[in-house]
Amino acid sequence: MIFSPPLPAQETDLQETDFLEETRFLEETRFLEAFSDPARIWGNGIERVIEEAYRTCFITRIIGDKIINIRMPFGENNERGGLLNVLGHNIYEGGKGNPGTLWPIIERMLDSRQFVEYATALSNGKEQVIIFDIPTRTWRSSRSFFDIARMKAGSYRGLFHRPYVLVSGQGIDETDVYNYLYCIGLIGMDCSGFVWYVLSYIAREGGINLGAALNPVLGIPPGSNTSWYIGTSFFSSESPVFIQVRDEIANLRPADIMLFMGPEGRVTHSAIIQSVDLTRGVVRYMQCTDEAPQDERGVHESFVYFDPARPATSLSSRRITWSQQRRGAFIGETGTVFRNDGERYRAHAQFGGGRIVRLRTLIPIIERINRQQR
Question: Could you tell me how far CA 232 lies from the centroid of its own chain?
Fold first, then answer.
């Protein structure tokens, strides 16, 4: 038997303190893990699976002395009025990447010398205008009194290829990171890329590779990356892989796809429903777009509010409230003609307006996921 000499009282106190701090840390970690578990709010059904997919589109980083939550940016090849195509610039993976491939690249961008210089400039305590140049993927700072005054007066001097952003110089925030990734990084997901990612995530939960399952039906060559063939035209097609769903609230289900019509009679935007609460009168849906308030650009959640006593109300009805506001990508830009998603969904009624479709392949998978939580 080995006996150890008693530790000095001070050392014993330090060890007890360390033990208590470690115990407290572990308890807090377990609490945070439990608190952040989607199942805590959504149970273990399909709503939880969609929420998990959504949360993979966010990361948290310490930049300077701030903890910043970063959302997946919006990225589309024909963005900025087709400017990127003209310049020969392509969004990484054409806007069809997924968080698993995109976040490592974004992390490297945020670790780069150029980004550190950008973050430092935004923390120098001096009001300034950041001028991005998308064709050269560069930026510069202007402290010109006239540039600053014009921005404050609402006289926006930016162009599609050269956005202007007024900053306080008091430190970088989430919108500043987004601006950098959007203008310099040229990386992100487009609307249909995000919807496809969520649908694929659901399929994987059910043990199915969605691309491999659909490629033969869609005529896509074996081994091809299906996401490259997926756009809003795919979701709006008359393909037998989709079921057309009447858009009364009572008919909606999680994983249903919202389609927004464009001026030429073709669908120009898509989103995906995460949950339908008939008791509280709330539909929560998710999308990726830059036509949103500054701190929501990229992947974000949106809501439709309706009277629970009227579940037969159509999404095109003016009796319901769409919370999602539409804005230009940068303050001062006039990038959208709609004030909110409701106007956008009801638009172009001569072509049928907005619509809802459901992917047949996922129906048995979703039923199985929902049965497992019972």
Answer: 16
